[in-house]
Specification:
Layout: H1 19-30, E1 33-38, H2 44-59, E2 63-67, H3 82-87, H4 91-99, E3 109-111, E4 123-127, E5 140-144, H5 151-158, E6 166-171, H6 186-193, E7 199-204, H7 211-216
Parallel strand pairs: 1-6, 1-7, 2-4, 2-5, 3-4, 5-6
C-alpha cells in the first residue's frame, strides 16, 4: 500500500488528523475512487482539497471541483455570467484552500467560462450542470455535496470520468437538500461501488465545530 510519508505535514493538517481522516488520505493515494460519508464539520472537504493540492504539487495532476445544490437547476435563468452565478457556491472550496495555506484562493481557481490560460490556476471549479459532453482525464475530481445530486445527475458526472483520474466523492446522507420527490444518488452509488477493488468507503465521525454543531447534526426527521 502506498503511504503518505511521515514527514509530509500536508500543509499543517497532519498533526491534528484523526485515524479516520488518515484513512481517507491513504484511500485517496491508493484507490481510484474514495467515497466519504461524513457528518458536518468533520473536515472532509478540507482533506479532499489538501490531497488535490498534494497530488498537483507531486504529480502535476490538476483538480476539477464539481459541486451541486438544488438551486443549480435554475442557474441558467439567473442573471450574470456563468462564473458569477457559480461564485457563491465556491465558499467551501475557498475555505479549504485557505486552510491549506493559500492566501489568494481565487487566483488559482478557474471557473467555467474563464478561458484565460494560467499555470497558477490548477483547480477548475464548475457545476455538474456543465459536465455533460465533457471527458475528464488525468485529473483529481472532487464531487462536493454529492448527497444533493440526483441519481441521474450523479450518473452523468461519474460516466464522464476516465480511469486515470483520482475521484473523491464527499457527502453527508443526513443533510440532503433535494426536494422530497427527488431521489439522491449518493447512497445508491455508495453501495454500488462499495465492493469494487478500486473503491473505498470512508466514514468520518468527529466534528471539529464543537458541541452545538455536532448535537444539531444528530436531529433527523422523515
Amino acid at each position: 500500500m502506498t503511504k503518505l510519508h511521515g514527514s509530509v505535514l500536508l500543509y499543517g493538517l497532519r498533526e491534528r488528523m484523526t485515524d479516520e481522516q488518515e484513512a481517507m488520505v491513504e484511500s485517496i493515494l491508493t484507490n481510484r475512487l474514495t467515497i466519504v460519508n461524513a457528518k458536518a464539520g468533520t473536515g472532509k472537504t478540507t482533506i479532499a482539497v489538501a490531497m488535490a493540492k498534494y497530488l498537483y504539487e507531486t504529480n502535476g495532476q490538476r483538480c476539477v471541483f464539481l459541486f451541486g445544490t438544488p438551486q443549480e437547476r435554475t442557474l441558467g435563468y439567473r442573471p450574470g455570467t456563468t462564473a458569477e452565478k457559480e461564485l457563491e457556491y465556491l465558499a467551501p472550496l475557498i475555505d479549504a484552500l485557505q486552510e491549506c495555506g493559500e492566501q489568494d484562493p481565487l487566483n488559482i481557481i478557474q471557473q467555467a467560462g474563464d478561458f484565460v490560460g494560467s499555470d497558477k490556476k490548477w483547480i477548475e471549479a464548475r457545476s455538474h450542470t456543465f459536465t455533460r459532453g465533457t471527458n475528464l482525464k488525468g485529473k483529481t475530481v472532487i464531487v462536493e455535496e454529492a448527497q444533493n445530486l440526483t441519481r441521474g445527475e450523479l450518473k452523468k458526472v461519474l460516466t464522464r470520468i476516465s480511469d486515470d483520474c483520482t475521484v473523491i466523492m464527499i457527502g453527508h446522507d443526513g443533510q440532503c437538500d433535494l426536494p422530497k420527490q427527488s431521489s439522491s444518488g449518493f447512497i445508491p452509488y455508495l453501495e454500488h461501488f462499495r465492493n469494487e477493488d478500486y473503491c473505498e468507503v470512508i466514514t468520518l465521525t468527529k466534528s471539529f465545530r464543537g458541541d452545538l454543531a455536532e448535537h444539531a447534526d444528530k436531529l433527523t426527521w422523515d
